[in-house]
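Following the same procedure, backbone shapes were mapped to integers, yielding the entry below.
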Amino acid sequence: NRLKASREVESVDLPSCRLIKGIEAGAEDIDILPNGLAFFSVGLKFPGLHSFAPDKPGGILLMDLNEEKPKAKELRISRGFNLASFNPHGISTFIDSDDTVYLFVVNHPDFKNTVEIFKFEEEENSLLHLKTIRHELLPSVNDVIAVGPAHFYATNDHYFTDPFLKYLETFLNLHWTNVVYYSPNEVKLVAEGFDSANGINMSPDKKYIYVADVLAHEIHVLEKQPNMNLTQVKVLQLDTLVDNLSIDPSSGDIWVGCHPNGQKLFVYDPSNPPSSEVLRIQNILSEKPLVTTVYANNGSVLQGSSVATVYDGILLIGTLYHRALYCEL
């Protein structure tokens, strides 16, 4: 039941969609700046997950959604950063008061856990590596939401780091995963008790933090306190495995990349591939939030959708290890 192993989806198509050239091995997370520049985290490799490019390191791609026919181009990363072991997962951008753009990237070099902070240098089309963060409270990082130039909330999708203990933890349904707040002065646990904490994001007014619990099929709404602690406000139950969360800055709607059937995701069969599903959640704080299926596919076009995000009538859908889709809404 946690993997929704028997669930099949009925197709929900959009009128105009195309696969994005140059993305063949996953675009696990996508974050779009207010000016329409979209960052893609590509090439994730994870124990137990399929990969279409097992020997190629991951990277960060950039796409300008204001162009008539936008293309995804790989960003250069400054010297001194180990590109060979770059294995990017969740990403988040932060714009400082002086308009400096920082990109936070969850990284799994040699299947370890770090958060990398880069400065985006638009004129050079590059990322300048500033800092690598490792911490005992960040043993199994999945996603981050940046709240300052070196400040973020992060989800841990497992409590343990040992592969066997990770498996046992999931099998026993321990609900030990958590959310951590990190700053240069303080690192602390701010929410716990999740089955498998995954995507994380923040409301446009910065009052609420949203956390996707992938194996519990839930989105948690948490209120941000002045000391950066989080208190639970509500839980929205869904009928699918919820992965990354994106926020429409103008409406506050939550866009969710989902896995209708988790079994197909982890046991890859090209003749019966994992399906994709995109949900839009309106008025999550109300008594009856409106949940709409905007896109669904049985894997014939897009396999394993992990993120969906919107900008000016454009919807981008990324996947764990497959292609990415550019759609007009």
